[in-house]
Structure formats: C-alpha cells, structure tokens
Design brief:
There is one protein chain. Helix content is 50%, strand content 10%. It contains 30 helices and 22 strands. β12 and β13 (724-729) form a beta hairpin. α14 (387-402) packs across α15, α16 (444-462) packs across α18 and α16 (444-462) packs across α27. It is elongated.
Length: 1016
C-alpha cells in the first residue's frame, strides 16, 4: 500500500531532506562568499542550534500527535494478548536458562501453614493454583515421593484457592515456584483472561505509593508498549490493572522494610478486587510479624514449603549427573551413586541434612557435575562435622565450578573478582550490585578528586581539534609550566571541594528528583561566600591587583594561578549543585515520550551535527581557521550526535516518569528561573564578599611606599611633577599587544607571554601584534597607572593597560606608583568582580534549565538490563553536557561581544562554556562509573570489560539480574565470598536441626536455583 506524502512519517523525512539540502547550500554560500570565515562558521553553528531548538519547540507547542490507542475494545484485547506472549517468552527463556526441565523439575512439597496466618476457611474459594508435584521424579516404575501428602482426603490438606501466600526459608524454592506458577497459569489461560506477571516487591514503598499506581508503573517500565497513553489520564498499563487483566505475583514480601509490611498487607486487601488471583512469596517470620501487626490477606490460603526429601534430592542428582558405567542390572552409575547409598544408610550425616534445600542440591549438582570431581569426601565427618561445614564447602566451590569450562586461570580470576564485589556489598550492607554505585569500591580520596581529573581529561580531548588547527597559542596565555601545573592542581582541588560541600547528598527531592532543599541552599550560599572571600583575599595577597584587575591577566608566581583555578572549578560544581546533581548521581533518562518528540529530537540533533561538522571542517581546512570556531563546531557535532542517538534508541528511556508532551519547555523555564534566582543570589553574594576581601588586601598593600622621586633603579628613572608620578626607561621592551577593536585601549603583555584570545568570531577587529618599545613610561595619578609605549621610530606613543606590564618594574617602583587612596583600588578592581557575579547567575540558570528539562529520574528497578541502563545514561549525559555547553556559549555571546573588552570579560566568557559541559559529564553517573571502572581495572581488581564479565557471571548462574542491577544468586553466596564460612555468617547447625538463622531483614533473593546449571 502506498503511503505518499499524506503520511506524517513521509512528511518528516521530506522536511529533513529539505533542511539538509538548505543547510549544505548555506554552508557553501557562507564559505565562499563571506570574507570572515570564523564569523561565517559561528553563524552556521548558530543556525543549526536555532533549527534544533525550533524543532523541539515545535514539538512542545504542538504536542505529540501520535494517535493514542484506545484503552477499550479490540486494542485492549490485543494489548493483553501481547503482554501474555511477552511474559511467556520472558519466563520460558529464563526457565531454559535455568535448565528447569533438564532432565526434570526438582519438585518442592508444600503443606498448609498455621491457620492464624491465613484467612477464615469460609472466605477462601476453592481452586488449585500451585504447581503440584508430578509423578516421574524417580526411576521408572517408582512412585513420586511426597505426592501422597497432597492426595490425602483430609480437608486440612486441600489445595489452596486462587489467592496463595507461599512461605519458605532462604533457598527453599519460593522464587522458582512463582516462575513455574506463571508458566502454568499461562499454559491454562484462555484468550482474554488475566495475565500473571511477577512484580518484585523490593521496589514498592507502601507508605508513599498505592498498590495500583506501583503496579502500573512497573508494568509500563518492564513492558514498554504498555507505557502508551490509553486516554488523557491513564496508560495502557493502568487500564489493564484497573480492568483486572493483570494477575500480580508479588515476589519477596520480606524484602519490604519492616515498618512498611503491615501497611502493604492493608493496601493489598483494600486495592485488589475480591477474588482476584494473587500469589505472594515471603519468609515465614516476616509474614507472621506482618499479620500480627496488621491483618491477614483476604481470601488467601497460606502454605509453607517443606524440606526436600532425601530420596527426591538423590534421584535429581543421579539423573542430572554424567553416567560413568552401567551395573549388571543396566542402571547407570554416577559419582553420586555410592554417596547416596551411604546417605540412605546414615541419614544423620551432615551431608544428608544439607541436601534438604533446593539451594544446596543445585550447588552440589554444579560443583560435582563434572566426572573429575568426587563428592565422596563430603561423607567424612572429620572434614565436614556439621551441616554448616558442608554448606560452606559447596558455597566456596560453586564459583570455580561455574567457571570451570573457561580454564583454571579464568576460574581463579572470576572468584577473585566476585570476591571484590561481594566484599564491597558486604561493607555497604546491601545485596544489590548497581553500576552507578561502583564508586563505593574506590578509595575515598580518589572518588573525591577523580571528577575534576576526568573533566580536565575530557576538556583536553576537546582541545585536540584546536591543536589540529594550529592555533593552541590563541587559547593559552600561560607559558610558564609551573603556573600551568598550579592552575590544573587548583582546578582539581576546587572540583574536590565542590563535590564534597556544594553538591547535595541526593537523599532529598520532590517527585523522585534528587534536588536540594532550602537548608542546603543556605549552606551552599554560606560555604561559597566564605570560601570566595578567603580565596580572593589570598589571590590579592600573592598577586598584585594595585594596577587593576583583568580576567585573563598575567599573575605573579604560581600561587595566584592555583587559587584562581580553585575558584574557577568551584563555580562548575556550584552550578550543577544548584541544578540538583548529587554527590551520588543516579541514572537519568531523557524526556522523549512519543513519535513526534523523538522525530523533533532527531531533526534537531541532525541539524546540530551537520552545522557543527561543517563549521569545524571549514575552520580546519580553511586558511583562517579560528580555534574557537573549531571548538564550537566540534561541540555542536558531538551534542547533535548524542541527541540523535538518544532519540533513536528507545530502550530504557520511555517510562512512566516521562513528562507529557508540552512540558519540556515549561520545565526548562521553571528550572531556568529558579536556577537564575539561586545562582544570582549566591553569585552576587560570593563575588561581593570576595571582591571586598581582595580590595581590602590590595588597599593595605597600597598604603605605604618608599619615596622614589628623582631616583633611578635598575634603569628606571622615577619622578613626580604636578601630582603625576612617572617611571621612564630607555631600554628596549618587547612583547605582544592585544588590540580589542572599537577604539578600545590596547592590552600589552611583556616578554614572550602571548595575549589570550587574539582572534574571536563575531569580533573581526580583534587581533594581536608584536611590539618593540624604545621608550616606556608609566604614569600614575592617585594610584591609577597608565602605561605608554613607543612602538615606532617616531615620537608617537600608545597608551596601554599597565596590568600585564607591571613585571618589568622593580618592586619598589610598583609600590610607589600605585600608592593612593582605597577608593581608587575599589574603582579599579571591584566592578569587574561584581559583574562576574551577575554572569554566574545567568549561567547557573541555564544549567538548571537544561537539567530540569532534559532529566527524567530512573527507577532503580525499571531498566530492562544493566547494560541498557548504562548506555542510556551515557547517551543522556553526553546530550546534557553538550546542550549545557552550547547554551552557556550562547549566553556568553553578549559578554564576548562587549565593546572594548572591558575588564577582560571576553576571556571569562570563553572559559566558561566548554569546561562547564565537561564538568556536567564528569559528575554524571556514567562519568563516576568510568572513573571507578578504570581504577578497579588498572589495579587488577576487576576486568576492563566489567559489564561483559557481569553478564557472563549472570549466564553462569553466579549472579541474577534485578532491573538495572545484579544480585548474587543468594545472600549466602555473597556472604561466603565476602567473609568466608564464619560463625556469624553461616550459623552452625547440628545434623538434626532445620533452618538457617540470619538477619531478620536480610533479603531473600533467588531461591537457590542455578541459572546456568540448575533445575527447580
């Protein structure tokens, strides 16, 4: 069927092609007909940015025109059938991965629990829902052990109804039973019936969120098509929940906080329809406490999983082991045959008691699945006198056995690496291994200083095009290596200080966004103001501000460069702290919520990428390649590429928290207004305090000086006539001269120091020239100094700013020339510092606006996989960093274009935008992960391809996937790797005892079924 131009997709493609052709034509026109190629490049980049913003604004103003599916009728039926198929494929694949049917499931018996934990029998409708143990678990012709318990006609042993609570100790098989329950219900389900879906309860907060809201959020997050809007109020996921087409399987009730369990039971009773099917799993003590504090589950029977029968466990081990030889009667013989015979004779041995849980059976199967290993030593009471000793041995041998086919060295490396991870989780008191929390394994000092180092490294990478353009000298005004090192050290220290004191902890926020509260705002203001006053006072003490202050000037020694770098990088963390970026960042997505918004983002990204590529290429290949044009083009190209990638990759980005169409602009405006207000207040206060501190120190230095009238020192002749002090030398003075244009006074630099930013886009009159002065004069009136140079052969002199020429004067001459009232120092130094406070406010508002508009908080459980969550956050971080840099550059354009380069603000404007973008990237969750992974790999603790290793450990059954993170397959395996078989981790049990005591709130993760080698 032909679609033609009437299709919205076809029209978007045509519009994209027209824009691309027009942009290419405009690039050619600007390149060949515009005399100033640098200005042409900036205009082209600005045009690309304008097209990007226009595309996004068009999406915002029009809204998402994608047809919303109808929540009723045929579409709802298609949605529920698609959900059933997705759930079936998901858990069938997991069952195959866990080899539940290889060779047959390991059946777990159950019995009715204490009647006080269940509802009244008359309230429980009949109807078996639990998978019943099937026959055939033993050798041919033998009955399945344990089935007689369910065959008894006693009403107390009748099968439960549609609502069931399954209780069991860690490793007893609850989670796998829930998975089998889902598959059995799907096999018996009729078209249009409810779909069983497993929901891990660990991500629910019953004290804040209702059950239905949480079910809809998780359903939309795990099955992305259901996140589509069914009507103006509800998503398809919410419609399926409200209409009873989802049968929830609530796994891990004991993983809820103790204080929330009773509330959770009450919410389940109040919000689920009476008689709606439900399966809930929990540890027995957690459920008993919840019932005692709250209520029973209405209409639900409570069953308890029983220990495995030794005969059934032995049959499973025999059937899953590799045959060695056949006996006379033709029965295969395995490594387990003599062991099981001994256990049948001695059921009191510790090994027999250990094999009563599915977890230990699965571990034993994996460890001794290879014929090269013999389980006979497990019978030795001297080596394994207790059940705990047997279990500790199986847990310790499991990881090497899971990686045995990779070779001895790979198995040893895997054990060592997993031990590092287990110890880190043990120290933090958690069982969840999240990639964005990997920084906890890094030394605190490195974690504190690493963001600054990463930002500098990324900044250096972006400066590479400048090197290729052979224009690095235009960007750097420092040739003293010591000063450059001091500047870098100061920036690293400033980053570390800002991360520690100016970023919120991330524990507070509204609507799930980690944002600072008012108390932290006050703390930010006080800390920034105090530190700024201290740093500016130190800067004025070690430097000489008596000649006046200019941004981008030459300092006296390395100490002012260190303090200036500290102040500079502290600003970046302040901006991001005001925006809400926390010290412990979490993954953040982007707010693309529909086909139109994605198309707008792709169009805007393509425009940015094309404009940036053309601009950088023209500057690099042309004869007038300006370094700032190259940098601006490179940043545009990177940001545009990331924007296109973010709109193309759907995985992990759409979700229930995604803003509706039309809210992106409002979020940006709200963030920009609030951020500008906060940053302006803090910036003006800190710059005022710092400016007065610097002026005070400088005024004290200007109070006294030796009288140098009619004296000569080091070739300089000092005199005073009519209140004008002068210092004259006939020695030749060489240096560089910065001509700002617009008739402004030139800025002179002495010696080999090259002026910064000699050429700037949009400023065609700005340039640098070398000068040779035959006669140099410094004139001073009330401490205000002006320098006069004689660059030509005639007597004509040129008045220049004296700030960067003061180094040619003797120290006593400086004191004498700048001696004057404090009011003169205030006039020469304070205005520039105060104006920088206003610029801080505007830039801070831009950063806040970008982060509020382009950040969608991610639920820690919502991602389809850890790798997908990592890639999504990486793309989002690159996009936000690029957009921050571009928007700040746009804001700094009026500052750069200030007539006459007043106070050196051009240098300040050029130094803000690119480092701010790299700082945003370094302080993101992906940036922190990059640092942590690099450190752990460089020190040999973890591999460079960390996510690939974790995926392999998941495939081999050592780890289990939980949303965007991993968990060890069982808490006891994690404890074994972290601490070994100690008494406080693995409690010793006598052969006749049952149960494993543990922490009351320890999460019951996977129920001990091997994902790669195990069965149910």
């Amino acid at each position: 069927m032909r679609v033609g131009l009437h299709s919205a997709q076809a029209r978007r493609r045509m519009w994209f092609a027209v824009c691309a052709v027009a942009l290419a034509a405009l690039a050619a026109i600007l390149r060949f007909w515009w005399q100033d190629s640098a200005t042409a490049g900036v205009l082209l980049t600005a045009l690309g940015a304008f097209m990007s913003v226009a595309a996004l604004m068009a999406d915002v103003l029009r809204g998402d025109t994608t047809a919303r599916p109808d929540g009723d009728g045929a579409h709802r039926r298609r949605a529920v059938e698609a959900l059933a198929e997705a759930v079936r494929e998901q858990w069938a694949a997991e069952a195959r991965l866990r080899r539940l049917q290889d060779p047959a499931p390991l059946e777990v018996d159950w019995t009715l629990a204490d009647r006080r934990l269940a509802d009244h029998p008359y309230n429980i409708p009949p109807g078996a829902v639990l998978p019943r143990p099937r026959s055939g678990g033993g050798p041919p012709g033998t009955p399945d052990p344990g089935t007689s318990d369910q065959a008894a006609p006693d009403p107390a042993a009748a099968p439960p109804g549609p609502r069931v609570v399954v209780l069991g100790e860690p490793g007893s098989g609850k989670s796998v039973l829930a998975m089998r329950y889902v598959l059995d219900r799907l096999a018996a389900r009729e078209e249009g019936g409810p779909v069983p879906v497993i929901f891990p309860l660990a991500s629910w907060d019953p004290l804040r969120a209702s059950l239905r809201d949480w079910l809809a959020v998780r359903l939309a997050a795990d099955y992305r098509p259901l996140a589509a809007q069914a009507d103006d109020r509800r998503t398809l996921a919410r419609v399926l929940v409200d209409t009873g087409l989802v049968a929830p399987v609530l796994d891990g009730f004991d993983e809820l906080p103790r204080a929330a369990r009773a509330t959770a039971v009450r919410r389940i009773n109040a919000e689920l329809d009476p008689g709606a099917p439900l399966l809930l799993t929990s540890r027995g003590d957690a459920w008993a406490a919840a019932v005692e504090e709250g209520d029973v589950l209405t209409g639900a029977e409570v069953v308890e999983l029983r220990p495995l029968d030794l005969v059934r466990a032995g049959v499973h081990l025999e059937r899953s082991a590799r045959p060695l030889r056949a006996t006379a009667d033709g029965v295969p013989h395995t490594v387990w045959t003599p062991v099981l015979r001994k256990l049948a004779e001695r059921p009191d041995l510790p090994l027999a008691q250990a094999l009563t849980t599915p977890l230990m059976v699965a571990l034993a199967r994996t460890v001794y699945g290879d014929t090269s290993r013999d389980p006979t030593p497990l019978l030795d009471p001297r080596r394994f006198p207790t059940v705990a000793a047997v279990e500790g041995h199986l847990l310790e041998a499991f990881v090497p056995a899971a990686f045995a086919d990779a070779g001895p060295r790979a198995a040893a490396d895997a054990t060592r690496r997993l031990t590092v991870l287990a110890r880190g989780l043990h120290r933090r008191g958690t069982g969840r291994l999240a990639w964005w929390e990997l920084e906890s394994l890094v030394p605190r000092t490195l974690a504190l200083y690493a963001p600054g180092l990463l930002a500098l490294a990324v900044l250096s990478l972006f400066l590479l095009p400048v090197t290729l353009a052979r224009a690095v000298d235009d960007l750097a005004g420092l040739e003293d290596v010591l000063s450059l090192v001091a500047l870098l050290v100061g920036q690293t220290l400033g980053f570390a200080f800002g991360v520690r004191y100016l970023l919120p902890s991330g524990r507070r926020g509204r609507r799930g966004t980690p944002g600072p509260d008012r108390g932290f705002r006050r703390r930010q203001a006080l800390v920034t103001t105090g530190v700024s006053a201290l740093m500016w006072a130190g800067y004025a003490y070690f430097d000489d501000l008596r000649f006046g202050f200019r941004f981008g000037g030459v300092s006296d020694g390395w100490m002012p460069d260190l303090l200036g770098g500290f102040l500079f990088s502290q600003l970046f963390t302040l901006f991001l702290g005001i925006a809400g970026l926390s010290r412990r960042p979490i993954p953040l997505g982007l707010p693309w919520s529909g086909a139109m918004s994605r198309a707008a983002a792709r169009l805007g990204g393509a425009a940015l990428a094309a404009a940036g590529t053309v601009t950088a290429g023209v500057a690099l290949l042309g004869r007038e390649g300006n370094p700032w044009t190259v940098l601006l083009g490179t940043t545009c190209a990177a940001a545009g590429t990331a924007l296109m990638a973010s709109a193309t990759n759907r995985g992990g980005q759409d979700g229930a928290h995604t803003p509706r169409a039309g809210r992106i602009a409002r979020r940006f405006v709200t963030g920009a207004v609030r951020g500008t207000a906060a940053a302006m207040l803090i910036g003006v206060a800190s710059c005022t305090a710092g400016g007065f501190a610097a002026v005070g120190v400088t005024a004290l230095k200007s109070r006294t000086a030796a009288d140098l009238r009619d004296r000569e020192i080091d070739g300089w002749y000092f005199s005073e006539r009519a209140g004008v002090r002068s210092a004259v030398t006939e020695r030749t003075l060489r240096g560089g001269l910065l001509l700002p244009g617009d008739g402004a006074r030139p800025v002179a630099f002495a010696g080999r120091t090259r002026p910064p930013n000699c050429t700037m886009p949009l400023l065609p009159g700005r340039r640098c020239v070398d000068f040779v002065s035959r006669r140099t004069v410094f004139e001073s009136r009330h401490g205000a100094v002006v320098a006069l140079i004689t660059p030509g052969a005639g007597p004509r002199t040129t008045a220049v700013h004296p700030t960067n020429l003061r180094s040619v004067l003797p120290d006593a001459g400086r004191d004498w020339l700048t001696q004057g009232p404090a009011a003169g120092v205030v006039a020469r130094d304070l205005p520039q510092i105060l104006v920088s406070g206003l610029l801080i406010g505007v830039v801070g508002g831009c950063v806040c606006g970008v982060y509020r508009a382009l950040s969608v908080p991610s639920d820690l459980m919502r991602a389809a996989s850890p790798g997908l969550s990592l890639r999504t956050d990486r793309t989002a971080s690159l996009t936000r960093g690029g957009m921050v840099a571009l928007l700040v550059a746009l804001v700094c354009v009026p500052v750069v274009a200030t007539p006459g380069d007043w106070g050196g603000l051009v240098h300040l404007g050029t130094q803000l935008w690119l480092p701010l973008g790299t700082a945003a990237l370094a302080l993101s969750a992906w940036g922190r992960f990059l640092v942590a992974r690099s450190w752990l790999a460089a020190t040999g603790q973890l591999p460079w391809r960390l996510m690939a290793f974790l995926d392999e450990a998941h495939q081999r059954g050592v780890l289990r996937q939980s949303g965007a993170g991993f968990e060890f397959r069982h808490l006891r395996l994690q404890a074994q790797l972290a601490t070994g078989p100690t008494a406080d981790v693995v409690a010793a049990r006598s052969p006749g005892s049952r149960g494993l005591p543990g922490p009351p709130d320890a999460p019951d993760m996977d129920e001990g079924f091997d994902i790669h080698h195990r069965t149910s």
